Amino acid sequence: DYVFGIESNTIDLYNAIAKNIVKSSLYGINGTIFAYGQTSSGKTHTMKGSEQIPGIIGLSVNDIFHYIAESIHDREYLLKVSYLEIYNEEIKDLLNPQKLKLKIHEDIYRGVVVSNLREEMVSSPNHIFQLMKYGEEKRHIGATNMNDFSSRSHTIFRMNIQSTDKTNGSIQMSTLTLVDLAGSERVSSTGAEGVRLKEGTHINKSLMTLSNVISKLSDEKVQKKHIPYRDSKLTRILQTSLGGNSKTAIICTITPAVTHQEESISTLMFARRAKKVKNNYKINEVADANTMIKKYEVEILQLRDQL
């Protein structure tokens, strides 16, 4: 949809592709944003940024609280965040690192979720940034020939948003998923050995599965057949985001270096396939008995007024 060159900055990209998704998440629509590309092409800079230059995650968090402040008279909001990493195909809770062997299951309202994952109730952007800083300290990073601080895992930051309409009591629930993927890498370029080589193998395998899922979703002949979401933890967790109930944006990062031309072309081919994937998102509204009664009471009062 857009191409951002070397002179562009993250706020331009955020306003073009992410802002609408973030705002929709406050009205019961699931949203997902993630960056895909080779190692050292700018994914973490784009998604997480720095204190001086906030990334997509920081800009999203600030926007959400800004929107809530504007609509405080219409709806009441409850926000919870979780932060996990997938390292060597194991899920690690970055907000509670002691929890091991976390399992994935499906929830009727939220789609695919990780069980026993710590969810922290939050009330301000600073609260979220403190939690993320704590989680970042537990994350796996390491040096390679291409990057001194290479991401050795995929991280998934999730905000569960529940809001109640003050007029009729109806409840909307949504999940905003912001993902910083580890980069695909060539051993010849990164000089990976030992532990780094094992990490790179797992990273490449999960990214290959992601590419395979996107490829099958983009092929109308294959769509109704088996989609291999379960072949990796990453694609299983992102199942709702890929061809499901979510507004999803994919940021593909490439480096202008001629030596990485092959990887850049591969990333652009992934982007071309991803553009063909169709998601069917909807507003996730929950109505229990009490909510329905309140809703009918309001409708009756409105009808009486009209009479």
UniProtKB/TrEMBL annotation:
GO biological process, alphabetically ordered: microtubule-based movement
Database matches in Pfam families: Kinesin
Gene3D superfamilies: Kinesin motor domain
Alphabetized GO MF terms: ATP binding; microtubule binding; microtubule motor activity
Cellular component per GO, a single term: microtubule
InterPro entries in alphabetical order: Kinesin-like_fam, Kinesin_motor_CS, Kinesin_motor_dom, Kinesin_motor_dom_sf, P-loop_NTPase
Superkingdom of this protein's organism: Eukaryota
Record keywords: ATP-binding, Coiled coil, Microtubule, Motor protein, Nucleotide-binding, Transport
Binding site for ATP: 37-44
Residue intervals of the Kinesin motor domain: 1-277
Recorded family membership: Belongs to the TRAFAC class myosin-kinesin ATPase superfamily. Kinesin family.
Name assigned to this protein: Kinesin-like protein
UniProt source species: Dictyostelium purpureum
